[in-house]
Specification:
Elements: H1 30-44, E1 50-52, H2 53-61, H3 67-76, E2 80-82, E3 88-91
Antiparallel strand pairs: 1-3, 2-3
Length: about 110
């Protein structure tokens, strides 16, 4: 017998967005924010592609006007890796993995 909990695990961040698909607010709680960042990384950025900073900003602007904060959280959280000179970003498959080298899954 499967009992449904109050929140559906598949859409843990759905209630953070308004009906037009924009983010109401960036959550202050780290766990909520992590879930949001994972969602944003997964929906806005493709793996294995480099993004220039304006592209990252543009993508984040589609969900929230405070794109610098979101971008910083994504980088600090390990969802996006930034090149040393800061010119390009790349989505990480697995946040917080040491060295960022993850074997490709066929």
């Amino acid at each position: 017998m499967s009992s449904h909990h109050s929140a559906e695990p598949s859409r843990p961040v759905a209630d953070l967005f308004s009906s037009d698909g924009r983010l109401k607010a960036i959550p202050r709680k780290p766990a909520r924010r992590e879930a949001l960042l994972a969602h944003l990384a997964g929906t806005l950025f493709d793996v294995g592609r480099d993004y220039r900073e304006p592209e990252v900003n543009q993508a984040l602007l589609t969900v929230h006007e405070d794109f610098p904060a979101l971008r910083r959280y994504l980088v600090v959280g390990g969802f996006l890796a930034r090149t040393k000179d800061g010119s390009a970003y790349r989505r990480q498959q697995q946040p917080g993995s040491p060295g960022g080298a993850i074997p490709a899954v066929a």
